[in-house]
Give the backbone structure.
Amino acid sequence: MKWNKLSVRCTVETQEAVSNILIENGAEGLQIEDEPTQEMVSLDTYFAEDFDLIPLVARIKEQIANLAEFGLDPGDFQVGTEQLDDSSWADEWKKYYHTTRISRYLAIAPSWEDEGSFDAQTTLIKLDPGKSFGTGTHPTTILALHGLESVLSGKHESMIDVGTGSGVLSIAARLLGAGHIEAYDVEDESLKAASENFALNYCFADINLKKNDLLNDVNGQYDLITANILAEIIVPLIPQAFEHLKTDGKLILSGIIADKLPLIQETLHQHGFEVLETMNIKDWYGIVAVKLQNS
């Protein structure tokens, strides 16, 4: 199978804004490479062969050019595409993806690389990127992992992972001591990638993976719900999460760009949540909230 590589070369100043543009246009994984001048950066992502890139490229060019209206200088930016087969795609990822410490107690390593030297307290997640997924090191994923690390106490908490993607949050939760885990996604490619990563971490039997849209048709209440998805999708998820969390249950949200943070905070307040912690990496935000009481 062949894959379309979409590349954007832009100024370092606009890197976060361009990352957000790509994600809002369907990119779920990004490779970021600084250029020797340290003034420009390259961002790469991948789409299936049958994905129509012509209107997408035109839309992305227009949105990057419009960044000047917000005081950002995109410079002499470039947007290009390249077709790759599976083997070329794998070689591309291996150039960028290496064993990385994510937090005090979590590290991520690809299957083809040595696991590195970590202390006994570090939990290592083995993660291979699917064709549409990142390496677990994007700021939104790191924020969600930090949230998990702060909330889980090893008491076999029950959890739902909404929009599981590569499965990294479910894997981390299981390795950190969560009990029953439900992992949902609407995309077949996501389910395939997650299944493979669950097997890499020997936790396939411990996580119930299935195709599902947000929390539609879900029964019961859980200790924890996580979602690293776009803010526009988080908004309708919040009232569903309230219904399916136990009192004092935690909601971990990530994928929130700075200008959407007030919307998410207000929506949480309106639906009976208290924000316990707000985290950020540059313009990306994550939230840990608690359900105050049953309605």
About this structure: The mean pLDDT is 87.
